[in-house]
């Protein structure tokens, strides 16, 4: 897996202060996407063990307490990203169980494969659905168009 950007301190992509990872690769390629540079799977930088260690260190750094991890992109549920994203999410669950995990995907909950559902089962919040330029609404919280849904899961 590659990642395109990493924010060790982020207050935009979810509630509270967070750690945000933008993975590379998106099959949806939505018209009007603000993050087109993340569409190619090979864009950005390799996500390796050192980067996973950094995410965990930043997430658990007591100098700037973080509420959780946000996964965006690209698409963290892209089939090519699933193994690495799932491993990261499971590691966060094991090493920082008090942190919440949010993810954004262009797939709808109903479209998810079994492998994607396995990842979603580890999340606290999933924002699903393609960005639809014609349904863009700047007043929405955590999503760009009114067709996108926020799913909150009990953990």
Automatic annotation (TrEMBL):
Keywords: 4Fe-4S, Iron, Iron-sulfur, Metal-binding, Oxidoreductase, S-adenosyl-L-methionine. It catalyses: glycyl-[protein] + reduced [flavodoxin] + S-adenosyl-L-methionine = glycin-2-yl radical-[protein] + semiquinone [flavodoxin] + 5'-deoxyadenosine + L-methionine + H(+). Its cofactor is [4Fe-4S] cluster. Belongs to the organic radical-activating enzymes family. This is Anaerobic ribonucleoside-triphosphate reductase-activating protein. One of its GO terms (molecular function) is [formate-C-acetyltransferase]-activating enzyme activity. Activation of anaerobic ribonucleoside-triphosphate reductase under anaerobic conditions by generation of an organic free radical, using S-adenosylmethionine and reduced flavodoxin as cosubstrates to produce 5'-deoxy-adenosine. It comes from Ferrimonas balearica (strain DSM 9799 / CCM 4581 / KCTC 23876 / PAT). Its EC number is 1.97.1.-. It is an enzyme of class 1 (oxidoreductase).
């Amino acid at each position: 897996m590659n990642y395109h950007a990493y924010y060790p301190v982020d207050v935009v992509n979810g509630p509270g202060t967070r750690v945000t990872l933008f993975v590379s690769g998106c099959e949806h390629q939505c018209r009007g996407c603000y993050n087109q540079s993340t569409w190619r799977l090979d864009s950005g930088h390799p996500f390796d063990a050192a980067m996973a260690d950094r995410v965990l260190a930043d997430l658990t750094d007591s100098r700037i307490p973080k509420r959780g991890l946000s996964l965006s992109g690209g698409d963290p549920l892209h089939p090519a990203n699933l193994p690495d994203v799932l491993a990261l999410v499971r590691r966060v669950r094991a090493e920082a169980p008090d942190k919440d995990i949010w993810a954004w995907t262009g797939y709808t909950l109903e479209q998810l494969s079994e492998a994607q559902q396995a990842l979603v089962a580890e999340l606290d919040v999933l924002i699903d659905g393609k960005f639809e330029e014609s349904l863009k609404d700047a007043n929405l919280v955590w999503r760009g168009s009114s067709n996108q849904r926020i799913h909150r899961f009990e953990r």
